[in-house]
Amino acid sequence: MSYKLPLFAAAAFLGGYMLISNRQLRVNEYELKVSKLPENFVGKKILLLADLHKKRYGDNFNNLVNSCIAAEPDFIFFAGDLYSRDETDMIPKLALMKRLKHIAPTYYIFGNHETDNMDNAEALALKLTECGVHILRNNMEQIKIGEDHINIYGTQLPQRFYRNEDFSHHDLPQITKDELTKLLGEPDRSECNFFAFAHAAGVPCLCGLGSRCDVFGSLSRGSYKIAFYWRNTFS
Predict the structure, then answer these.
(1) Number of other residues whose CB lies within 10 A of the CB of residue 131
(2) Which residues of the chain carry a pLDDT beneath 70?
(3) With DSSP H G I counted as helix, E B as strand and the rest as coil, what are the percentages for the chain, rounded to 5?
């Protein structure tokens, strides 16, 4: 049986819409049918953000944060590229994530820009973990409501799936089911599993892993970005 789960999406690039300026932000709402969704999760809201890079959306990200508050999410997923690879000051981004965490439980997945600057990424991940943000790096966490739970898997793919050594994006490999299983383990297909990627390199093999809902940051390699890609796979 399938149940409906609202999904909000807000990001630097948002499903076919180009933002006019840093101070204008759109929030789109989608109602998803997710098979095997536990009863206590029916009607719960997920807020999905990705690809913030150097955008601010108001002083101290206030426009973005206010939009997130207005959405009244039950959970927040940040699917990669919180910052750009050439940024060095992580303090503003840390402050933003702390504010998001106070809105709802927040789950963060590394993107290709994070993995291009691992010193910053490791330092930021440590600070975020200390303040209660859940870091998903090739692992699974259970989100529980009462006696029910869903599983959220987050990936940190090797850099070769994101770009070539010369920073080009042609002829990149797609991760196989076996490679993804080595990173994440074998999911329980009888449960409701969410897979969160910063990139769509894993799309072709997810059906074989029992995914119920997949969320992404960058959909195409280095060119056009959307906030999420969702595909309800077969039960």
Answers:
(1) 12
(2) 1-24, 199-235
(3) 30, 25, 45
